[in-house]
Structures are given as C-alpha cells and as structure tokens.
Amino acid sequence: MENPGLLNWGRICLVAIIWGGAFMTVKIALRDIDPLTLAAARVVIGACALYTLLKLRGGRLPALNNRVVWGFAIGIGVLSSALPFALLSWGQQYVPSAFAGMTMAALPIFVLPLAHAFVPGDRMSTRKSIGFAVGFAGTAVLVGTGGLGEVDGPLEIWARFACVGAALCYAVGSIVTRRCPDVDQLSLSTAALLTAGIILTPIALIVEGLPGSISLSPLIALIYLGLIPTAVAFIIKVAVIRSAGPSFMTLTNYQVPVWSVLFGFLFLNEALPPQLFLALVLILSGIAISQWRTLVGLILGDKT
C-alpha cells in the first residue's frame, strides 16, 4: 500500500472528531427529544441529505426489482443505523456520553469472530484470538465499572448493555455490508438510510407520539446529527477509502473513544472512574494485537 499522505491522515482525524463528538451531541438533543424520535429524525435527515447528494451526482437508487441489493440495504439500514441509533439514544439517557463513545472501541473486537464465521478468507489466527481475548476482557471491565454518576440500579445496567449492543449491531452491519454484492456505495448507503427511516419513524410515532416543543440547542444538535456525522462524514469516508483504502479508514476506531471522552469532559463536565480508562486501554490493545501487521504497514506506508 502506498503512503496515504498527510491529506488522508487529516481526513481520518476529522472523521474521528465528527463521530467522537456525536455522542455529546446526542446527549444535548435528548434534553428535549425522546430517544426513538431522535433516532428516527436523525435517520430521516441523513437520508434526505444523502439522497440530495446522490441526485446531484447523477446517481440513482438501486432498481426496485433488485431484491438482493434491497435485502442487503434493509439489513444494513437496520443494523448500521436504525437499531444502534435507537439503542444509543435510549442508553445515553442514563450513562455519560463518553461511556457510549468508549463502547464503540469494542466494534472491531466483535468483528473478529463474525468475520471468521461469515467472511471467506478472514480467519481467526492465534494473534487475532489473543487480541480478541484481551479486547473482550476490556469490554467486560467497561460494562462492569461502577460509579458513573448518572443513575443507579437496573436502568443504568441496561443502558450500558444498550450501548455495547449498539457496537455489536455496527459490527454485524459491517459484515452484512462486506457480503453485499458490488454496488455504488452512495446509492447503497442512501437506500439503507431510507429504509431505516421508513422502519423507525412509525415505531417512534407509536411509542412516543408527536414531539413537543424543542428548544434551540437540542434542535441544532438534531440537525447536526442528521447532516454532519452522516452526510459530511460519509463524503470524507469515501474520499479516504478511494485514495488510501478501507484498511486505513479503520484507524478511526482508535480515535473515536478518545474524542468522545474529551468532548464529554470539556463540554458536559463528565467525570469518569479510572476503571473505564483501563477498559479502553485493554480494548485498544486487543485491536492493536489483532491488527498489528496491518497497522505497521499503514503507519509506515509499506506495501502489504
């Protein structure tokens, strides 16, 4: 692989900042917006933004008679948008935004056994197995750490599992995406978000009803969530993948938790117990062990 260059390093740092800051923004939006309504509105805004971009580029959605691609689009929409957004929005009512961001570090750990089972040629080696064990131990520490300072009792425990469950959804969604037939990425992403919006919106209306009055800060947060982490980050992500490859893009997994902690501390005054940082170190170490050769090649710009 050729050296990705300073521009692509800057791009993945920017995407990591955007995704890391999304957890803080969800916390702000939840002040006036119910969790399912927030998840649905976020998906709908993002879908409209991507559909507009698709039309401006002269693209189109997959043909309606292409049942295979639409089946994958539905799966990706549910597993990569509707379900994790709903789980994170609900969970962040009871846990700090930084905690939710930290759970995303577990995503590559969950991918390892899933890829072994469902992606041909992506087998679990001894090194990957060790990395998985270390990372899974970190995830256990993350979920089991007490003293988050939000709420006590079963709600907090379920909220923690909801955030970890969102990371698991993203992991399964990434496997489904990898198994999808070759199709334009923007077209597929737009179709996935549209189907996610169609599924999630009526559920939100039935469970939570029409939203009430929304003050300015939560409204801005909602619009931001729909546009920036979805549409803008997507454009940057595609640019990185096309010029530096998908493996290089995975380096954002190391940065997102760090930014989520920093934003939560600076803007929401979130204080986290030391055990959470031990958990984060274990998870990131597990990722590094499992992907060591790839990481060295990416950082040094060697051909792999």
**Approximate shape:** globular
- Class derived from helix and strand content: mainly alpha
How many H/I helices? Answer: 13
Q: List the secondary-structure elements in sequence, H or E.
A: HHHHHHHHHHHHH
Helix fraction by DSSP (H/I, runs of at least 4): over 70%
* Spatial gap, N to C terminus: 6 Å
* Total count of strands: 0
Instruction: Provide the residue-averaged pLDDT.
Output: 88
The largest pleated sheet is described as: none
What integer value in Å does the Rg equal? 19 Å
Quote the beta fraction.
under 5%
Q: What low-confidence regions span 5 or more consecutive residues with pLDDT below 50? A: none
Features:
single chain; 304 residues; mainly alpha; 13 helices; globular
